[in-house]
Amino acid sequence: MITATKRIFRSGFIGFWRNAYVSLASIFVMTIALFVIGTTLFVDQLLTASLQNIQSRVDINVYFTTTAPVEQVLDLQTELERLPEVASVTYTSPEEALARYRERNRNEAAAIQALEELDENPLGASLAVRAVETAQYASVARFLDEQEQFASIISFVNFNDNREAIERLTNIINAVESATFLVMMILVVAAVLITFNTIRLAIYTTRDEIKVMRLVGAGNMYIRGPFMLQGVMYGLIAGLLALLILYPMAVWLGPKTDSFFEFDLHAYFVSDFLIVLSVIVGIGVVMGLLSSTLAVARYLRT
Amino acid sequence: MIYFDTVSKVYNDGRAPALLDVSFQVAPHEFVSIVGHSGAGKTTLLKMIIAEDRPTSGTVYFESLDVHSIPKVKLPHYRRKIGTVFQDFKLLSHLTAYENIAFAMEANGRSDAEIAENVPEALALVDLEDKAWNFPHELSGGEKQRVAIARAIVNQPDIVVADEPTGNLDPIATYEVVQILRKINDLGTTVIMTTHNKGVIDELGRRVITMDEGRLVRDDESGKYIL
Questions:
Q1: Angular region, B224: left φ>0, alpha ψ -120 to 50, beta rest
Q2: Sign of torsion, CA A66 A67 A70 A73?
Q3: What whole-number distance in Å separates Cα of residue A276 and Cα of residue A269?
Q4: Over A243-295, what HEC string results?
């Protein structure tokens, strides 16, 4: 058993090395296929991150009058938090609002001066409401409209200002998500098919030799083993090569994606390197192993 | 040790039968030549012995074993008892002469020590020690066929089946290959060989079976090539 395994490994390596052109061609094609898969993985991450980003910026702000009692504001907060659509409600006190205003207008002497002129804080408290999904803001807004006991203390709700933008954004997000999913699936399926075909051709060139091995009395596993090992080697090497191409791309694109999508591709590549590595190399190894097993099976049947 | 009992092989494409009611037996240590025109059924006959093809009717026995009742998974095991030599050599192109011979032993599950001992012996028997590390494309036709014979005998099979072993060779290489086959036979291995070559038959002076259109038409103990 150990001897057989050792021999399968040795003949796998010998076959890989002595059919260098075939091995190179297979690795080259698989590298491209895995590069495509890696790119779709990046695009997917980029989209997911930027969608989350955009979604997290959408919220409903409820501004209260300066005279609104704190207890009532907190009551409304509790009511809102009870809604299943609501992900979070953040309370900002008038003092915090003032501090934030000062901070923001630090360099604008006129604004600070205007504030100094006033005896009391002109800013009221506010609640920032975040829904679980963008589509749910409408129902949150409707809920706020219906709260008559709070009508007197609410200065204004900014939802209607953003409504159109929020709805359009929701639609765009959904459309982009399904379109990219479709494109990715097509690319991945194409990559898998091309890999399978390349390995099939590589093994087709040795079909006569497989026949000879059988005539000499080699068992099926003994014939199949080296080919399976070669498939794994193709996938392993191609996966590492694909990562070698993807890394400089991530470094180059990192600052650009960071400023545009607020998602640093380079940082992602580094922080989630183990995941990227296992996905790319793993897919490569599985594709190589499956392709070669299926391709050899044809010649072992009769 | 080989026994054909009224074996016929008919293809479904309307051609004349490849074999028709062929019966004969081969005793241990015999050297049998099978002659006949192209398409007389010689190769089909050999394919029956190595279970590469099935008879339409009749039975082929190896010792007392019905060859075609062997389950597919046991076939490799059965084929290890038979050494095969082909007209087109059928060497593995990415392996050296030494490795080609060793492959047959490895597939057989022999130990590394046995391989290290028997492969050089087999190479010596076919007089190719100095070409052990050459690849098939670096060898002449005669040398390739000698490697193939070494591969066929290295597992000490009971029988060697050779299909037109000299078909692609020049007269000198033919002579060498026949001498090697004769030597193998003298060492105790049964040899069944098909050939077209009159000179080979006359020189051997052993048993000759003549085939014509799928039928066995002559079986001479010490035959000449008569067609």
A1: beta
A2: negative
A3: 7
A4: HHHHHHHHHHHHHHHHHHHCCCHHHHHHHCHHHHHHHHHHHHHHHHHHHHHHH
> Does position A236 have pLDDT exceeding 90, yes or no?
yes
Question: Under CATH, which number does the domain A66-152 receive?
Answer: 3.30.70.3040
B50 with A215: Cβ contact below 8 A: yes
Residues of chain B with C-beta less than 8 angstroms from the C-beta of A12: none
B114: which chain A residues are within 8 Å (Cβ-Cβ)? Answer: none
Contact between A250 and A15 under an 8 Å Cβ cutoff? The reply is: no
Task: Tally the residues of chain A.
Answer: 302
Question: How do beta strands B2-9 and B57-62 pair?
Answer: antiparallel
Burial of residue B221 (CB within 10 Å: 0-12, 13-18, 19+) is exposed
Q: Closest partner residue to A209 among B50, B79, B92, by Cβ?
A: B92
Task: Give the list of residues 6+ apart from residue B29 with CB closer than 8 angstroms, or none.
Answer: B185, B188, B189, B190
Choose the closest CB to B107 out of A19, A209, A218: A218
Q: State whether residue A19 sits within 8 Å of chain B by CB.
A: yes
Asked if B94's CB is within 8 angstroms of A222's CB, the reply is: no
Helix (H) or strand (E) holding A2: helix A2-18
Q: Find residues 187-226 of chain A whose CB sits inside 8 Å of chain B.
A: 208-209, 211-220, 222
Q: Residues A146-153: contacts with CB within 8 Å, 24+ apart?
A: A147/A76, A147/A79, A150/A72, A150/A75, A150/A76, A152/A65, A153/A64, A153/A65, A153/A67, A153/A68, A153/A69, A153/A72, A153/A73
Q: What is the ipTM metric for this complex?
A: 0.78
Report the first-to-last Cα separation within chain B, whole angstroms: 27
B208 pLDDT higher than 80: yes
pLDDT greater than 80 at residue A135: no
**pLDDT at residue A193 above 70?**
yes
pTM: 0.73
Give domain limits for chain A: 2-54+170-300, 66-152
Map tokens 């409408």 to a residue.
A138
Q: In what side-by-side order are the strands of the sheet with A126-131?
A: A86-92, A126-131, A60-64, A154-157
| Backbone phi and psi for residue B51, each to the nearest 5 degrees, phi listed first | 60, 35
3-state secondary structure of B209: strand
CB B68 within 8 A of CB B51: yes
CA distance A219 to chain B (A): 6
Report d(CA B81, CA B64) in Å as an integer: 14
- Chain B nearest CA to A228, separation (Å): 17
Tally Cβ neighbours within 10 Å of residue B37: 13
Query: A45-88, pLDDT tens digit by residue?
Result: 777 777 777 766 677 778 877 777 778 778 777 877 777 877 77
What's phi and psi for B47, nearest 5 deg?
-60, -30
CA distance A294 to A200: 8
